[in-house]
Amino acid sequence: MTDDARLSDFLDWSRQRGIRFDGVEIRSAGEGAGNGVFVLACERANKNVIELPAAELLTAGRVAEMGRYRRILEEKSFRPTPFEMLVIFFYLERPEEGSEWTPYLNMLPSSFSTPVSLGLSLREEDLPLSVRRFWLPSVLPSPIDDDRLLWAWHVVNTRCIYVQNESHPLIDSSVVEDTIAVIPFVDMLNHTSEAACVAELDKRNRKYVVRLNKAVPEGSELHVCYGPHDNGRLWVEYGFQLEENPFTKVLLPTDLLLALAKKAGLSIDCHHQNAVEDAALSSTLYSSDEGPSWAFRTNVRLLHMDHKEIGKWRDIVYSEGKRRRRRRIEEEETRR
Ligand SMILES: C[S@@+](CC[C@H](N)C(=O)[O-])C[C@H]1O[C@@H](n2cnc3c(N)ncnc32)[C@H](O)[C@@H]1O
Prior knowledge:
Blueprint: H1 3-16, E1 20-21, E2 24-28, E3 35-39, E4 48-53, H2 60-65, H3 67-75, H4 82-92, H5 102-105, H6 129-132, H7 146-159, E5 160-162, E6 180-182, E7 190-191, E8 197-202, E9 207-212, E10 221-224, H8 231-238, E11 249-252, H9 254-263, H10 270-279, E12 283-286, H11 294-304, H12 307-318, H13 320-335
Parallel strand pairs: 7-10
Antiparallel strand pairs: 1-4, 2-3, 3-10, 4-9, 5-6, 8-9, 11-12
S-adenosylmethionine is lined by residues 29, 32-36, 109, 158-159, 187-188, 190-192, 238-240.
């Protein structure tokens, strides 16, 4: 099957499911980026470029309602997390077995470029007892196809989007709420930090909508922002990096911050250390124009304070002065 035939099948399948894509096309986004979504003409801000019924979102609850998956969960008495349910779906759903999702499955990348896809093989018996129940293969028919499982994990991890879903009795949302969905067509959008599109659930109209938040020129690629991710996270989770990434940041743990401050000539003692630790603000340096984060600047300000100023800060921020005064009054009253 040629790429054109795959795409044409997918577009027909999308239309049949009520997915509307107005004035956009899917095509190669260039070396290493797979496919992307492009506008055909110059478009104005606020236009909805992709719309689909909320019922078309692939959520864990929806999978759990499908006969085959409901049976697996009931037979194995397994309550997967939302993420696990979606991984099981992509592991088991196969074009060669006539899946009704075939046109969509055929559009998914066959491989990934994350570090983990370079080779990982786990045996259940090598895992600590406490984590074995989280090891998906125990509910999957054996023999387990490790490569397929890793592929399914990547599909979910690289394509799921944050959406607040209703809980489902067969899904375990006790630790992590069900807040993910894989959304066909919307998941063809690539990432950039300053995206022209926002994607959101329109609860009132029971639709999921991708809307332009600014005008875009003819032929340009549309992106969404997957989150304020630095290049490390983009690489590990999605297998790519951005040349210019305003979210590139360096986190300075408290120990390092104190060591650097001493090196810079500040005299630091336990009062400073306690003040910074109690404030619990993470010091972050961004590579963008934003400069040091507010939290970092506050920590540095604390390290510059003398003891009296630190005392005042604690009085104001933690109301320690009020508490001290109240204790004094109480003590005086008991003495009387
Ligand atoms: C949600 S999918 C987007 C559609 C995908 N390109 C495809 O062909 O199906 C996310 C994946 O797209 C690729 N991707 C997204 N944004 C990218 C970017 N700015 N540069 C390179 N690859 C990108 C990465 O492989 C990522 O794991």
